[in-house]
Amino acid sequence: MSQLIKDFANISQSWTSKRTTRRHALFALGCSLVLSTTLFSCSPSQNNNQQQASSSASNVANTNATNKVVRIVRSKQLTALAVLEQKRILEERLKPLGYKVEWPEFAAGPQQLEALNTGALDIASTAESPPIFSQAAGTPLVYLAANSSDGKAVSLLVPANSNVKSVKDLKGKKIASQKASIGHYLIVRAVEREGLKLSDIQPVYLPPPDANVAFSQGKVDAWFIWEPFVTRNVQQKVGRVLTDGGNGLRDTNNYVSTTRKFYQENPELIKIFLEELQKAQNWAKNNPKELANLLAQTTQLDPPTLEIMHSKYDFTLIPITEQIINKQQEVADKWYRLGLIPRKVNVREGFLTPEQYAAITPQEVLAKK
Fold first, then answer.
1. Residue 335 Ramachandran class (φ > 0 left, ψ -120 to 50 alpha, else beta)
2. pLDDT of res. 66
3. Is the pLDDT of residue 39 over 80?
4. Is 217 helix (H, G, I), strand (E, B) or coil?
């Protein structure tokens, strides 16, 4: 037994010695790396000490300047968000706060809000339906601002050679849209206005790129979609517009949204973002030719075509009011009645108080109440 204790003591002493040796080696290696990285001399020279301090301060400043990233959805280069991205206005405003801006792109609103929920996106810009579906899935979403409806920018396309003359003629036919999008919502609105039900047609749910292929190949009879897909298909004589979201068909707004956590942690950033978005809205509305020229290269569309597309947008931020909230609740109730969301949604859970909106909304927008 005593021999066993002695053997254990010898082993313990051996491991202790090895750990000490390793610690010394690691300490020496760490010192070596620090010294080689900072080019710090062992000499007690004051100049070298000042250079080291200056270098360290510079490294800290650079780290602070890029240690936070805000991801704002790319807007397909057609809305005021595209102005902010191309002019890099927001980057300049947020740089003193230590933020770097990234502009990820998504196929449609539902994909944006899925990314919002997983932390891959911070600020989304969608129509009315994606936030409702997101709330139904349990996302702690916050509606930051409402935007103009831009109904004419969303159209129901049929093939150029189709004999369909009205929405009624689409009874029993395949109509494509991105599920839970403005196209999906307007299909419901369009068939109901004609006295039909959603069950009277064959909905085909495809993201825009896939729907574009299906439509061009004649695999669907119609497609409710937004710009630039509409103008491109018309120009290429692949499709023609049967109707659009204008003339009262669209009765909702677009929304800028985020998560509750991001809102709570970044109020100053959100205030600056909405200020600059409002300025970009005004500039886009008042400078159509300059807007088209600004976005021509990134969209690979000629300025006259872009002017046609941009004429379908109102470029207007709208204050959040009880009317806005109530309308959003109507839409949520409709999706629930249709059995397309799993539970009844109280959209008010995603809206802020009037006082909270007053703290982040540009005064110019609040004055419209």
1. alpha
2. 53
3. no
4. coil
Single-letter residue type at 354: P
pLDDT score at 271: 98
Compute the average pLDDT of residues 30-47: 34
Q: Cis before residue 354, ω within 30 degrees of 0?
A: no
Size of the chain, expressed as the number of residues it contains = 369
How far apart (Å, rounded) are the C-alpha atoms in residues 307 and 293? 9
Distance between CA 348 and CA 328 in Å, rounded? Answer: 9
Q: Which helix (H) or strand (E) holds 99?
A: strand 99-102
Locate tokens 């911070």: which residue? 122
Mean pLDDT, rounded, for 275-283: 97
Residue 205 bridge partners (DSSP) = 177
Whether the pLDDT of residue 210 is over 70: the answer is yes
What DSSP element (H or E) covers 145? strand 141-147
**Torsion sign over Cα 124, 128, 130, 132:** positive
Spatial distance between the Cα atoms of 67 and 62, rounded to a whole number of angstroms: 8
Strands 222-226 and 254-259: unpaired
Are residues 143 and 113 in contact, defined by beta-carbon separation less than 8 angstroms? no
Residue 204 in tokens: 């085909």
Residue 78 near residue 229 (C-beta atoms within 8 A)? no
Tokens of 286: 């008042």
pLDDT at 353 over 60: yes
User: Are 142 and 319 within 8 A, CB to CB?
Assistant: no
The CA distances from residue 216 to 164, 222, 231, 238, in Å, are 16, 10, 14, 6
pLDDT of residue 225: 98
CA atoms within 13 A on the CB side of 310: 32
Q: Do 292 and 231 contact (CB within 8 A), yes or no?
A: no
DSSP 8-state code for residue 254:
E
Q: What is the mean pLDDT of residues 41-63?
A: 37
Give the whole-angstrom CA distance, residue 148 versus residue 162.
32
Least confident of 21-35, 169-183, 265-279: 21-35
